[in-house]
Write a structure and sequence with these properties.
single chain, 389 residues, mainly alpha, globular
Length: 389
């Protein structure tokens, strides 16, 4: 029953989490923190902060970690499968019929999904802000972070900001009783070391193996593993890396790449699932499903190895008083990152007219004050979008 709950909870999120990585974290917060109470708000914020530091898709890593807290490595695997499966299936099927689908016919409901993401993200930021920024010092950190990132968008800058305000937290902030520490799954340190060794071993070994044995499958694994292992900032950042790997080499046509990128922004689930689409249409792999599976697993594998490898040591680190102080500053900065991302790309890609603003506002009130489940609000918004657009 435990494993089924992990899988079906992640599957529901994979079917309803529209709006990109930042929105995913909002949906996760609502499901895992507010509704199921698998983890408290402070521990969730710590986990999000950790995943912001790690390369790969932050939202997927948070999901894997939460699955790990409930069911170990099997739980982490089921959580990843459940969250990724819907988008992977849609994108692979889209790869089959990419030339036969006219997306313009469906622009109304696609736009409705983007609008409702605004409401979901706004609610999550409000909730996290109340918990993580209860004083003027942390509110100031949040404000400074959001202003900087609104002017300068860079994944590397995000890392520097988190490090800087972590240092600020050590000297100027103190843990308070309103943000209690809650331990995550302690994990197994020996298993953690093994997974970290696998992460670095594959990162170093695959390029060498590719030169010795230049088979199609090894080339795909190497390219997508490297993209997943070296990208900071989530799914939107990995797309240029993937384009550099598959388009110039002739594996995927430029038009096919852009078509897949377009649909990946209009469906629920992680943007990294785009790798399955690229594997499906790749000219290197004659078997559609083999290519899709290879690329999909290779892109997510680094994140899986890293989060399982680091969690056992992360839990001990968090007990250190200075680390706890640093996390106060980092968590406040994370809220600032979410606010900046709320404007670009969530708001700027969805709110163009008064109708858009009205629909997003109505969705926010349903979520925040009427406590309507997010999946219900998503469906209602899509239905309304057919009539008002």
């Amino acid at each position: 029953m435990k494993y089924l709950e992990i899988f079906f909870t992640a599957l529901k999120l994979g079917c309803t989490s529209f709006g990109g990585p930042i929105a995913h974290l909002s949906y996760f917060h609502n499901e895992y923190v507010t509704k199921k109470r698998w983890i408290n708000a402070q521990a969730y914020a710590d986990l999000v902060s950790l995943c912001q530091f790690l390369p790969g898709p932050a939202s997927s890593q948070v999901g894997m970690a939460l699955g790990y807290t409930r069911g170990g490595v099997i739980g982490a695997t089921l959580s990843w499968i459940g969250f990724t499966l819907p988008s992977a299936i849609i994108l692979i099927l889209f790869g089959l019929g990419v030339t036969k689908i006219d997306l313009s016919v469906h622009k109304n409901w696609i736009h409705g999904l983007k609008v409702v993401a605004v409401a979901v993200v706004a609610q999550a930021i409000l909730g996290m802000g109340k918990k993580l920024c209860p004083d003027k010092e942390r509110i100031t950190i949040t404000a400074i972070t959001s202003v900087i990132l609104l002017f300068f968008t860079s994944a590397f800058l995000q890392i520097l900001i988190l490090i800087f305000f972590g240092i600020v937290g050590i000297f100027f902030l103190n843990p308070s009783n309103d943000l209690p520490h809650e331990p995550l799954h302690k994990g197994n340190k020996k298993l953690g070391i093994l997974f970290l060794c696998l992460f670095f071993g594959l990162l170093i070994g695959l390029p060498i193996l590719r030169e010795i044995y230049p088979y199609q499958e090894i080339k795909l694994v190497d390219s997508f593993y490297r993209a997943g292992a070296l990208v900071f900032g989530g799914g939107h950042v990995v797309l240029p890396l993937l384009q550099a790997e598959v388009v110039p080499s002739g594996w995927v046509d430029h038009d096919l790449f852009l078509a897949g990128y377009g649909i990946s922004n209009a469906i629920p689930g992680p943007l990294f699932a785009f790798s399955g689409y690229l594997g499906a249409v790749s000219k290197l792999e004659p078997n559609l499903y083999t290519g899709a599976t290879i690329c999909l697993v290779a892109a997510f594998l680094p994140s899986f190895l890293l989060i399982i490898g680091i969690l056992p040591f992360w839990e001990n680190l968090k007990k250190n008083p200075n680390i706890r102080k640093a996390m106060l500053g980092i968590n406040a900065a994370v809220v600032g990152i979410l606010i900046a991302a709320f404007y670009q790309p969530v708001w700027t890609n969805a709110i163009f007219t008064a109708k858009d603003f009205a629909l997003a506002t109505f969705g926010f009130f349903l979520l925040e004050y009427w406590k309507i489940p997010s999946w219900t609000v998503v469906i209602a918004t899509v239905l309304v979008s057919f009539f008002i657009y």
